[in-house]
From TrEMBL:
It comes from the Eukaryota. This is Negative cofactor 2 transcription regulator complex subunit ncb2. One of its GO terms (molecular function) is protein heterodimerization activity. One of its GO terms (biological process) is negative regulation of transcription by RNA polymerase II.
Length: 117
C-alpha cells in the first residue's frame, strides 16, 4: 500500500497503518455523532465532510469534495444507463412496449374490478 517512492522499515509501516486506521475510526465516530444529532440512521457524505471540519481537517475538504462530485456524476450516469438499458435490452420496439404496457394496465384494472365484486 505504500507508494513506490517511499521506503521504510516494517515497524514504521505498521505504525503508519495503525495511524490510518485510528484516523478512520475517529472520523467515522465523529460523522456518526453528527448523523445521530440529525436523527439520521445512515452516515452520508455530508456527515463525513462535517466531521472533517469539526475535527479541524479542513485541508482535506477540497480533495474530498472533488471525489464526492465525481462519485455523484458517475452514479447519475450509472443510474441513467440502468434505466435506459432495460428498455434497450428488451429487444422490443417502442410500439411493442406501449402495447404491452396497455395490456398490463387492462389486466390490472380487470383484476381490481374482480376483487371489488
Amino acid at each position: 500500500m505504500m507508494p513506490d517512492d517511499i521506503a521504510c522499515a516494517k515497524d514504521t509501516r505498521d505504525l503508519l497503518i495503525e495511524c490510518c486506521v485510528e484516523f478512520i475510526h475517529l472520523l467515522a465516530s465523529e460523522a456518526n455523532e453528527i448523523c445521530e444529532k440529525e436523527t439520521k440512521k445512515t452516515i452520508a457524505a455530508e456527515h463525513v465532510i462535517a466531521a472533517l471540519k469539526a475535527l479541524g481537517f479542513e485541508g482535506y475538504l477540497p480533495e474530498v469534495e472533488v471525489v464526492l462530485q465525481d462519485h455523484k456524476t458517475q452514479q447519475k450516469v450509472k443510474d441513467k444507463d440502468k434505466k435506459s438499458g432495460r428498455l434497450e435490452n428488451s429487444g422490443k420496439t417502442e410500439e411493442e412496449l406501449l402495447l404491452e404496457q396497455t395490456r398490463l394496465f387492462a389486466e390490472a384494472k380487470e383484476r381490481h374490478q374482480t376483487q371489488q365484486h
